[in-house]
Amino acid sequence: MTSARITGNAKLAGVIGWPITHSLSPAIHNYWLANYNIDGLYAPLNVHPDQLADVIRALPKMGFAGVNLTLPHKELVLPMLASIDATASAIGAVNTIIIRDGACHGTNTDAYGFIENIRPHLTGKNKIGKNKAVLLGAGGAAKAVAYALAQEGFAEIIICNRSLAKAEHLASHYPTAKAASWQSRATHLEGADLLINATSLGLAAKEPLHIDLTALPKTALVTDIVYTPLITPLLQAAIAHGNPTIDGLGMLLHQATPAFHAWFGHPPTITAALRETISGAQEN
Ligand code: NDP
Questions:
Q1: Does the annotation mark 74 as catalytic?
Q2: Domain chopping of the chain, boundaries
Q3: β-sheet bridge partners, residue 161
Q4: Which residues line ligand 1 (CB under 6 A)?
Q5: Would you list the DSSP string of 168-221?
Q6: How far apart are CA 51 and CA 259, in angstroms?
Q7: Tens digits of per-residue pLDDT, 60-108?
Q8: Is pLDDT above 90 for 124?
Q9: pTM of the entire structure?
Q10: How much distance in Å is there from the Cα of 102 to the middle of ligand 1?
């Protein structure tokens, strides 16, 4: 879907990645542009890491309102920006650039996207506790999740990662976080309120995530940031174990909302129709 009107004054944004073919962000932003009848366009931008600095420099000159960044650019871009806000600086990665007065300013909306996706379980009738979270992974996405959990006030955050050194480095940023080995992951589930997969395990055509859920309380919320497929092997196992679950597509939709608002001047809404359109787009 593209915007209903694209004139010479159209506001421009896009997503820079390498490769970019599988990004769902163009489908999300162009859906909102069409829905709100905004004169704008959001493009997939396939940029090799060697060309990133030139492209970032050119964006203000080309009239862009901003861009998103995805793999492998989120950390590479840091020294190329005029400023980085406190959230992006704490996470150590930028996923959104907002262009103001001809300069590129970096922020990170992944932590916001993660926490807003699970927010109904933090505040609703069946609200979970914030005593203990078990986070699987210590890569780029896990950094945003760990920041969000610390900001949200989880009393204990156990970070299990295949490369223990990366888990230790991430845990060292937060007083309530502790690193643990990948092999020990199932042993930390006792008393957990929240279990998050932030590894790439479970992605379609990749290995599933194996974890014995026996010790996990049935009230614990289980969420996967992988959204292809929507119901990952971890979520299937959690449903079978009787736990509430949330898929990762909501995180992707929520992380897009602050950027859209900043670039195009309209606060977008996440609706069932949008979810349906985007789930359909990822099947094609
Ligand atoms: P990274 O490459 O930075 O990190 C990958 C993580 O997966 C690392 O923790 C890595 O461990 C772990 N991992 C990979 N293979 C294995 C394995 N065989 N066994 C155990 N652990 C493994 O990727 P990102 O953090 O950027 O992305 C991770 C996933 O999150 C992707 O699937 C991505 O699509 C998804 N994502 C979803 C978002 C959303 O909005 N829902 C937003 C961003 C990402 P190690 O450190 O040891 O290599």
A1: yes
A2: 11-108+250-283, 127-243
A3: 181
A4: 71, 110, 113, 137-142, 161-163, 166, 182, 199-201, 203, 207, 225-227, 248, 251-252, 255
A5: HHHHTTSTTEEEEESTTGGGG-TT-SEEEE-SSTTSTTSPPPP---TTS-TT-E
A6: 23
A7: 999 999 999 999 999 999 999 999 999 999 999 999 999 999 999 999 9
A8: no
A9: 0.95
A10: 34
- In single-letter form, the type of residue at position 89 comes to S
Nearest CA to ligand 1 atom 35: 226
Catalytic residue, from 74, 127, 166, 178: name it: 74
The predicted pLDDT at position 204 comes to 84
Cα(62) to centroid(ligand 1), Å: 33
Domain 11-108+250-283 and domain 127-243, same fold? Reply is yes
Structure tokens at 274: 């949008």
Half-sphere exposure of 95 (CA within 13 A, CB side): 23
Query: Domain 127-243: which topology?
Result: Rossmann fold (3.40.50)
- What is the C-alpha R_g of the chain? 19
Residue 69 structure tokens: 């960044």
The residue type of 231 is I
Q: What is the pLDDT of residues 161-216, one digit of tens each?
A: 999 999 999 999 999 999 999 999 999 999 999 999 999 999 887 899 999 999 99
Structure tokens at 9: 């004054």
Q: Stretch 148-162: mean pLDDT, rounded?
A: 98
CATH H superfamily, domain 11-108+250-283:
Leucine Dehydrogenase, chain A, domain 1 (3.40.50.10860)
10 Å CB burial of residue 72 (0-12, 13-18, 19+) is middle
